[in-house]
From TrEMBL:
Start and end residues of each stretch annotated as Disordered: 1-53
UniProt biased composition (Low complexity): 43-52
Organism: Aplosporella prunicola CBS 121167
Keywords attached to this entry: Phosphoprotein
Name listed for the protein in its UniProt record: Sphingolipid long chain base-responsive protein LSP1
Amino acid sequence: PSPPPPYPSGPVRAPSRSRSLTVLPVRNRNRSLSIRSKKDDGSTTGSTATKATPRHRFTMSSLRGMQQPELSRKLYKLIKSENHAIGAYELAGRERGSIATQLSEWGEATNDDAISDVSDKLGVLMSEIGEQEDLFAQSLEDYRGILKQIRNTESSVQPSRDHKAKVSDEIAKLKYKEPQSTKIVQLEQELVRAEAQSLVAEAQLTNITRQKFKEAYDVHFAAIIERAEKQALLAKHARAVLNLLDDAPIVPGESHPEYEGVEPGRNILNAAEDELRAWRPTCAPIASNAGHLGAGAMPASSAVPAGAG
């Protein structure tokens, strides 16, 4: 039998907006600086956002997991667990957007100009914080896709291991039962070929595992840093909006001074969006020699060992 073919790269994924070293485009400025729904546009708000159909539906994954080769079973389980985690991040983002809308609508219903304006602007920022969860989930999808390349390579190596073990077992049985059998020589020659093929397959597995493991978790941790920094940026501006609210107590019959935070609040939202647009990754890049990997998951300058074909 011939050695397992090099792992195909598969279909090219569209780059996530939240990929490592990729700067996100920022949407139109602050969505009119308000999160409140237009009463006549027929749009849905509130808890209806949480009822959207999730992208990760139930499948026969448990059955497929049992059918996975032993070598790839653990990574298959990890990838499936990450799929559930991604669904949770997506749900958290939708819930955060729904809560932001509810906060804004509650503030409007208080008939307090200051509370109404501050709650609406906080809703804008909280909704954007929720949006970062969805962008984070997109990066995790990219990370999962890279891990799948390791899993698929593990699956392709399993037959080579199994064949080598099977031939070794047959030789051992014959030497015990029929030590003079001429078939032993044939099996030993086949074992030499199987070991050569296994040598190539194991080298491919090692090279792809190291390269893709490093690449996958580079994407993963860069996405965590990006989400954290952007959410911290938004939260700091939300606290600045909160400072516009005068919470000094009043006595019966007295009124608070006229609220003058509309324009300062608008400036805070504009500053938040400008900073979000200007955000750039500052973490040190992960060093990689993956560029030296050539065809067949082998170093570009090396040759395949003799007998591998």
